[in-house]
Amino acid sequence: MKRIKKADIIFLALCFLFSGLSGYFLLNPDFSLFSDDLSKIEVAKVFAVKMDVRLKKTNSYSWLPAYTPARLFYGDSIFTGPNSETDLQMADDSTIHLNQNTLVTFTNLGSRVQLDLRFGEIVGDFSKNSTLSIKTTQSELKALGHMVLKSSESPKSDDAKTDLPLVENKASAPALSELFIKSRYPSATEKRAPSAVEIPKITWTKVASVEQYEVELSRTEEFSATRKYQVQGNRFEWQDYRPGRWFYRVHALGSAGITGLNSETGQAKIYLEQPKIYVPESVIVRGKLEDASGTATTVKITWDDVPFSKNYRLRLQPLNHPEDIQSVDVPTTSSSFNISKPGKYLVDLQAYDEDNQPILSEIAAKKFIYIYRKWAKAPDLLEPKSNSTLFLLSLQSPDLWLEWTPVEDIDQYEVELSLDEKFSKIYYSAVVSKNRILLSRELPTGTVYWRVRSLVEKQERHSEWTKAYQFRVGNSSREKL
User: Which residues have a Cβ under 8 Å from the Cβ of 462 and sit 6 or more positions away?
Assistant: First the structure.
């Protein structure tokens, strides 16, 4: 086998090096094989870009997107589209701001740089040592201090077709101009018709010669998952909208499937009105204990259904003990909590959609108070004694005294008589302020049951009923009710 000589190895290495350098310079837009020395002299740098800003090199026929920090040389041109801006840093530390729809070219004027403002508007802050010359359609002048210069000419039709071609055959990026971000859907308690609901809308400035656009909406700013809509014109109404926080952008759709640059990203917050929460303003519980310690009361809470909701988060917070907050997630419009501490409580509610995003404009809330009251003490029945038999002179007007023991701090007593021990049907009832009552109503013969309970604070708090006593009314025949 023939060995490779050292000279051959060196020759191959030089070939590879030459090939790599050739590829770099051929692909580098800042290098032109046939340009003169002036095209290699840097005159400015791009240090800020907004929206559609394009750059064309001296010997190039294509407009490329301008990025920071792109370098500009003699013969280069830079263009800003609708709603687009850029800032340039000159070699002498002067700064130039190009407003929208502006085209400038840097040319050589002897030993100085000349900025040819073909159309549009620039705002410059030029250093004292600046040698820059500015040429407009009206005049030519030396750059000095702060200057605002405009060109009265508009882009020529030929410029639009040849000198300013679409960026790499792509449509320009439309600029978003308006979004109605607040849209409220009627809750279950409202009477508005669905046709009265405001629909979110997005509008944007048109791209020349483009009528079709694609709108993208996503939950994330990275647009990892999107909803896409193709529309004609520069207005989109989101008929099947969903509430929550959304990011959106628009790009033009050209012929043969060409897709334009994306607009800037907008953010929309679309929320619904709060539903009504239903819970009693006062929850009053009575018990035998001195206080509510060791007891639990169940409070049921319901609310209106919220459109688009898949889940609800309901929270209960005692205002005197905010650290004892309770929370529950439910798919339905009702839930309950167990409470044991008397006081004021706050209930709040948030609804979530299928992406677990909140959809209410504000958390719905309502307050209520929990009151615990101990049962009043029941009296003891005295007369007539249980299981006694009474022979009355007259059943029509018996004049029978019913008596019981008095209870301290009791305002009133309630008395009931029935002909069955379960008191399923009350034969007679009365409320009295003393611990006895004279019964003058007609009584039937047979067994009569009676009981008493204590009443306090206008019957808002009362005792349990006493154990029923029974007595028998004697006569030859029993009368029916």
Answer: 286, 375, 376, 414, 453, 454, 455, 456
Q: d(Cα 386, Cα 404) in Å, to the nearest integer?
A: 12
The token duo for 360 is 């209410």
| In the block, residue with structure tokens 């400035």 | 205
Q: How many secondary structure helices (H) and strands (E) does the chain include?
A: 2, 37
DSSP assigned state of 211 = -
Instruction: Please name the residues in contact with 94: beta carbons below 8 A apart, sequence gap of 6 or more.
Output: 124, 125, 126, 127, 130, 132, 143
Contact yes or no for 165/62 (Cβ under 8 A):
yes
Q: What is the dihedral of CA 23, 24, 30, 33, to 10 degrees?
A: -40
Candidates 175, 166, 167; CA nearest to 209 is: 166
Q: How many CB atoms lie within 10 A of CB 104?
A: 24
Q: pLDDT of 88-125, one tens digit each?
A: 998 888 899 999 989 999 988 777 888 999 888 999 98
Gap between the Cα atoms of 159 and 174, Å rounded: 20
**Confidence band of 16 (pLDDT split at 50, 70, 90):** low
Residue 56 to residue 76: CA distance in whole angstroms: 6
Q: What 3-state DSSP class applies to 95?
A: strand
pTM beyond 0.85: no
Q: Are 311 and 329 in contact (CB under 8 A)?
A: yes
pLDDT value for 376: 79
- Under DSSP, the state recorded for 2 is P
Residue carrying structure tokens 């320009």: 172
Phi-psi region for residue 326, left (φ > 0), alpha (ψ -120 to 50) or beta? beta
Displacement of CA 9 from its chain's centroid (Å): 68
CA distances from 78 to 119, 132, 146, 290, 341 (A): 11, 17, 21, 86, 73
Integer Cα distance of 66 and 104 in angstroms: 14
Two structure tokens written together for 72:
């500009």
State pLDDT tens for residues 422-463. Answer: 999 999 999 999 999 998 888 888 899 999 999 876 555 678
Residue 43 to residue 45: CA distance in whole angstroms: 7
CA distance 91 to 471: 118
Question: What count of other Cβ atoms lies within 10 Å of the Cβ of residue 442?
Answer: 12
d(CA 220, CA 355): 11
The amino acid at 34: F
SS3 state at 298: strand
Query: Does residue 319 contact residue 345 with C-beta atoms inside 8 Å?
Result: yes
Other CB atoms within 10 Å distance of the CB of residue 471: 20
